[in-house]
Structure formats: C-alpha cells, structure tokens
C-alpha cells in the first residue's frame, strides 16, 4: 500500500503555544488530504478536508482559526494547532487519498498540552 | 442520510475461533467499501477495497465480502496478533464515512 508519513508522532507543548503537524504522501500525489481527531476508544472524527491549492473545508464545530490547515502541494499538508490548551490534547491523524481510491493514513500524532 | 454501521461493537474470541464482523451501509451510489485495521496509538492500516456486490478479497486469515447492503470481514482461526479495532468506510463525495469500529480481542 501507499505510504503516508506523519510527523511528529508525539509532542508535548505548553498551553498558549502553537504546534505544527506535518503529513506527507511519500509515493503518490494526494488530491485530497483529511485531518482527524480521535478520542480514546472512539472512532475517527473528521476535522477538515483539504485539496491542494485551495482552502480547507472544515466540519461543523471545528474552529478554523484554531486548527489551521495548509495543503501546500500534492504531497504535503500541515495542521497547526494555535494557542493550544489542555482540551486540545488528543490523537490527531491525517490521511491522503488519490482520486476516488482508498485513503491511506499516517501514524498519528499524540498531542499533550500542559 | 448516508451511514455506515458496524457490529458488534466488541468481540472476544478464543484463538482459533472463527467469526465475522459486519459493516452495513446506506450510501447512495457506492464507490467502494474500505476495510482498515487500527492498533492502539497508531493510524489505521489499509486492508481491502471492495467495489461490487459479490466481490471477495483475502489476506492471510482475513476475507472481506460485499453485498448490496453490507460487507463482512471473516476471520478464520484468529491469533492473538489479530487483536485490533477493525474499521470500515464508504466514500461520500470527497469524504469517507467511517463506522464506529469493532474492537476484536483474541485470547490464547
């Protein structure tokens, strides 16, 4: 299967600071990338969908000014959690999709805000 | 409303005890049904894509099948290393609609 690399895998930051998470499709060009948040023992919660070169589409209830998404190229998308607070602590996962085929996921990022 | 529902929510099996996981969907104009495996603290790992009713795909002890309304993930003679959460998903325009998953535990 295709490879999607997500970095970092774990990050601890202080409350009020910003954190950037990178998602790269290593061996294919991703027309669409997705960002999810996952709470313990729960399923994936879609936060936003991004297409290369255009603004991300956020799901209802997701603050776009807090979770900044940039899809700069067909192989890179970034999620920046701005002014992070402890309630933003979670497991964040990206995925990349080529056309209408299956999506491939990154390894996830465990964010802890202290 | 497009929906994907998985059952059971949790399944405990003895090693070697075969079983099936269910994924039912109500997505108009289905353009694929995807199965993933997720281990704790990791992103989902792609397993299978099924496109049409009657299609079957196999990988080791796993076999996925598809009908017009549901998909099954059959696990034959499972081993403890098959313990994970299994997710199914169906595309809806440019998004994937995920089920809530089945948490499988296989005991030796």
Order of helices and strands of chain A: EEEEEEEEEEE
Number of E strands of chain A = 11
- What spatial form of chain A do the alpha-carbon principal axes imply? globular
Number of helices of chain A: 0
How does this model look, in words?
The complex is a heterodimer of chains A (114) and B (108). Chain A contains no helices and 11 strands. In chain A, the strands form 2 sheets. In chain A, strands 2, 4, 5, 6, 9, 10 and 11 form a 7-stranded mixed β-sheet that branches. In chain A, strands 1-3-8-7 form a 4-stranded antiparallel β-sheet, with no helix packed on it. In chain A, 34% of the residues are buried. The mean pLDDT of chain A is 93. Chain B is globular and about 40 Å long. Chain B starts with a strand and ends with a strand. At the A-B interface, strand 5, strand 9 and strand 10 of A face strand 5, strand 9 and strand 10 of B.
Write the layout of secondary structure elements.
The complex is a heterodimer of chains A (114) and B (108).
Chain A: E1 4-7, E2 10-13, E3 19-25, E4 32-38, E5 44-51, E6 57-58, E7 67-73, E8 76-81, E9 90-97, E10 103-105, E11 109-113
Parallel strand pairs in A: 2-11
Antiparallel strand pairs in A: 1-3, 3-8, 4-5, 4-9, 5-6, 7-8, 9-10, 9-11
Chain B: E1 3-7, E2 10-14, E3 19-26, E4 33-38, E5 45-50, E6 56-59, E7 62-66, E8 70-75, E9 84-92, E10 95-98, E11 102-107
Parallel strand pairs in B: 2-11
Antiparallel strand pairs in B: 1-3, 3-8, 4-5, 4-9, 6-7, 7-8, 9-10, 9-11
How is this structure best summarized?
The complex is a heterodimer of chains A (114) and B (108). By secondary structure, chain A is mainly beta. Chain A is built from no helices and 11 strands.
Features:
heterodimer; A: 114 residues; B: 108 residues; mainly beta; six-stranded mixed beta sheet; globular
């Amino acid at each position: 299967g295709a490879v999607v690399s997500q970095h970092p895998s774990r990050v601890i930051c202080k409350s009020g600071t910003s954190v950037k998470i990178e998602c790269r499709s290593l061996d294919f060009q991703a027309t669409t990338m997705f960002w999810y948040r996952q709470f313990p023992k729960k399923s994936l919660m879609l936060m936003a969908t991004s297409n290369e070169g255009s603004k991300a589409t956020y799901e209802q209830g997701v603050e776009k000014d807090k979770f900044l998404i940039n899809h700069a190229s067909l192989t890179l998308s970034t999620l920046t959690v701005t002014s992070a607070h402890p309630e933003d602590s979670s497991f964040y996962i990206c995925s990349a999709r080529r056309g209408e085929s299956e999506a491939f996921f990154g390894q996830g990022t465990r964010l802890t805000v202290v | 409303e497009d929906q994907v529902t998985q059952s059971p929510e949790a399944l405990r099996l003895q090693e070697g005890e075969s079983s099936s996981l269910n994924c039912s969907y109500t997505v108009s104009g289905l353009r694929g049904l995807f199965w993933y495996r997720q281990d704790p603290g990791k992103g989902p790992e792609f397993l299978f894509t099924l496109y049409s009713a009657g299609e079957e795909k196999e990988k080791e002890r796993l076999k996925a099948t598809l009908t017009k309304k549901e998909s099954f993930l059959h696990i034959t003679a499972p081993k403890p290393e098959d313990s994970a959460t299994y997710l199914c998903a169906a595309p809806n325009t440019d998004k994937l609609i995920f089920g809530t998953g089945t948490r499988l535990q296989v005991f030796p």
